[in-house]
From TrEMBL:
Pfam families: MarR (PF01047). One of its GO terms (biological process) is response to stress. Residues 6-138 form the HTH marR-type domain. PANTHER family: MARR FAMILY REGULATORY PROTEIN (PTHR33164:SF89), TRANSCRIPTIONAL REGULATOR, MARR FAMILY (PTHR33164). It comes from Roseibium aquae. SMART domains: HTH_MARR. One of its GO terms (molecular function) is DNA-binding transcription factor activity. InterPro entries: HTH_MarR-typ, MarR/SlyA-like, WH-like_DNA-bd_sf, WH_DNA-bd_sf. This is HTH marR-type domain-containing protein. SUPFAM superfamilies: Winged helix' DNA-binding domain (SSF46785).
């Protein structure tokens, strides 16, 4: 990759990160929840009663991050957790009624303008864009960054 291409890629990714950061702040102001908290709540809704390991895979977050998020969501009364009767080491999470009601009021995580522009593309182009974004995430080893950041900094920012 040339230096010019590298700069272009970095600048484009930086613009995406900035747009996501702005949207995250808008959503947090509207809901009192961070985007990772909403993603975890949606995961619990999608999967039903679920273990932390399964939820972390579904949400693309480390188990440690999901546990911290679940602690916060439990304090807010949005989820409950309980140990398995068969294996006390296994903990299940489920939505509360308050959690379901909260999810009903959560705004879309993607900006409306993006959704409209994306929908205006052909099916083939939308598929290409999704494949390209997934490929970029894989090239950046995004799956491993969450755990690596925790090891380096010792911080969790759910």
């Amino acid at each position: 990759m040339s230096d010019a291409q590298s700069r272009q890629v970095f600048k484009a990714i930086r613009r995406i990160v900035r747009a996501i950061d702005i949207r995250s702040k808008e959503v947090a102001r509207a809901t009192g929840l961070t985007i990772p908290q909403i993603v975890v709540l949606q995961g619990v809704q999608d999967l039903g009663e679920v273990t932390t390991t399964t939820l972390s895979k579904h949400a693309d977050l480390s188990s440690a991050t999901v546990v911290t998020i679940l602690d916060n969501l439990e304090r807010k009364g949005l989820v409950t957790r309980h140990r398995s009767d068969q294996d006390r080491r296994v903990v299940y999470t489920r939505l509360t009624d308050h959690g379901r009601q909260t999810l009903d009021t959560v705004p879309d995580l993607l900006q409306e303008e993006f959704k409209l522009k994306f929908a205006a593309r052909s099916v083939h182009e939308r598929e290409r864009l999704v494949a390209a974004i997934l490929s970029i995430a894989e090239m950046m080893d995004a799956d491993d960054l969450d755990a690596s950041a925790l090891l380096v900094t010792g911080n969790v920012h759910p």
